[in-house]
Amino acid sequence: xxxxxxxxxxxxxxxxxxxxxxxxxxxxxxxxxxxxxxxxxxxxxxxxxxxxxxxxxxxxxxxxxxxxxxxxxxxxxxxxxxxxxxxxxxxxxxxxxxxxxxxxxxxxxxxxxxxxxxxxxxxx
Length: 124
Known about the structure:
Layout: E1 2-9, H1 11-15, H2 19-38, E2 42-47, E3 55-60, E4 63-68, E5 77-85, H3 89-98, E6 106-111
Antiparallel strand pairs: 1-5, 1-6, 2-5, 3-4
């Protein structure tokens, strides 16, 4: 089963990290990425730029509206992900617990809904 491991962290906390601490965090991510690749379960991953670089798109009455953002007042921001293919939720949780940011933020584990299994009109 495929899962998305969504990494959430406080961008303000990251911005205050020393160059040395950021280097240690990136080294930990490098080790984790190597481990998950070698295990053969990683489908893909990426780090996102900060929310200050985001653009929100909304369509209202046929018009496309864009705003800088998001501007939600939240403590932790979505900053990256790993997509994995593992047998079950327990294994997905075990991988999520190894992501370095799980110690200072959180990792949301969510099953990917296979499109062929998604009921028409109700993807909930």
